[in-house]
Amino acid sequence: MAHLLGAERLHLEFPTRVVFDEVTLGIDEGDRIGVVGRNGDGKSTLLKLLDGRMTPDGGRVTHRRGIRIGTLDQADVVDPGKTVAEFVVGGIEEHVWAGDAKVRDVIAGLLGDVPWHGQIANLSGGQRRRVGLASLLVGDWDVVLLDEPTNHLDVEGIAWLAGHLKRRWPADSGALVVVTHDRWFLDEVCTDTWEVHDGIVEPFEGGYAAYVLQRVERDRSAAASEAKRQNLMRKELAWLRRGAPARTSKPKFRIDAANELIANEPPVRNKVELDRLAVSRLGKDVVDLIDVTVEFPVADAAAGAPETRTVLRDIEWRIAPGERTGILGVNGAGKSTLLGLVTGAVQPTSGRVKRGKTVRIATLSQELNELTEWAEQRVSAVVAEQRTSYQVGDKEMTPGQLLERLGFTTAQLSTPVKNLSGGQKRRLQLLLILLQEPNVLILDEPTNDLDTDMLAAIEDLLDSWPGTLLVVSHDRYLIERVTDRQFAILDGHLRDLPRGVEQYLELRRATDAATPTSSATGAPAAPAGASAPVGTGAAPLAGADRRAAEKELAAIDRKLEKLSAQIAEQHEKLALHDQGDYVGLGALGDVLRELEASVADLETRWLEVSESLES
């Protein structure tokens, strides 16, 4: 594959630390790379070095001649003085850009609720972010660098973006590098993962699930000081294999290896024990919404007469002790209103809300207002004012131990709250809420400012929390990881989703297909047949074609298992062979390379056949 850009022996220092030291890497045609790592370790800085916005202190970055690089930064770079249309398509005539299927797809996928001729200055922060992303995606780029592109996108928007990036370039062309904490997105889009840590960039083959597997394998052979991190990643892997549908893009023999690795791992959550504890702490009654309807007044500017808008209608929801539920819905569907009914912040227009006498509700909100009063205090002092101990499962932990579990170092305990990073503030916010010992916990978009390692740590902490958990999030991985059932708000009604997020996306696609495309944005509607609905892909195989594909898949699995055994045997021969016999070693090495090349070809074919079956 053709080389696009590379970095050689990069060195970068900030006044207080070394960010990168001797980092060498390359990006080729067809690469789809996800970048993960702790907050502050240099993920965004790496993108800036690669596209030339930042110059390293040592080493160099090289670009192929004529290469076009498009970058989405975390910062808001849209021009508030322009209209949406001017910023996205510039001065291009409408009949020109409207005839481009890619441009129409981007506008429909990202700007459906954004006024096409409206001023950017009048948009919300989330809408501005999507305008910036749309402006980037309508361009033609050889390499696209995205820094947290899923921020401000809902579940549907994230699914659309994943589909767009997968079909944006032909196979083995173009390149994508994406920094994101959305683990479902990483698995869906990326074929390689770079972990940024301790001044280096460590490559892994595959998306997030494969990265977790390889990290577990690496950590198993690490020193005893890594035992804690290893156990957490093994638990994460146990969920990947046992929880939602398998996310690995590896063939069956690799899945078997993962299953063998976690054979002795206990379930992620002891549901029976958690339910028992929840009932003992909550009683049998939590919160019941009985035939609830919520309407809000809307002023009719034209007639001057008051009107009402029905947000939720005829809601029947009886929340059980220990229930772990995820709430899905588009922006404005009524998720916050539903949570307000549970907490008492919103009163129903009709129907009634019944709360148990022992219910204590706490909310982890999107804002960090809870920390304002402690801005000048040190972390250790803030925690010392709270409880002296906290029960986690069957273990009693001090607040300091909880802080350590949530990634705080000893040095950070003496840091003033105002000087903490966004991710550290979010972790402290969660800890302070848990120390209040609520028995109903509401998480409203809890993944903001958190990296993948810290998300895994928080999920691990929530696994042993024996209360009722309600989660509103656009992070599909989190929803599937920490909740046992999902509901969706569709047209004001609360609908159970036995098949989870995938069923929700199917319902939304069906709704969109049944609704004629409007020109609310001012942009022309795409003609029928111009592009397939988001996420539908190619027509699924059926009948004889499907049976043939399944048969081929099984045959590939058998061949890969056989080749895996032959590769292991060849490695053993190399180890036992006379190390002074260079000719013999060369011949054995040639055989090994041929076997590995065969495996690579078969894995590629395995993925192609799997995708045809899953379409």
TrEMBL record:
Residues 5-223, 287-516 form the ABC transporter domain. InterPro entries: AAA+_ATPase, ABC_tran_Xtn, ABC_transporter-like_ATP-bd, ABC_transporter-like_CS, ABCF_ATPase, P-loop_NTPase. The keyword Nucleotide-binding applies. Keywords: ATP-binding, Coiled coil, Nucleotide-binding. Pfam families: ABC_tran (PF00005), ABC_tran_Xtn (PF12848). The keyword Membrane does not apply. Gene3D superfamilies: P-loop containing nucleotide triphosphate hydrolases. GO terms for molecular function: ATP binding; ATP hydrolysis activity. Residues 546-605 form a coiled coil. Residues 512-539 are annotated as: Disordered. This is ABC transporter ATP-binding protein.
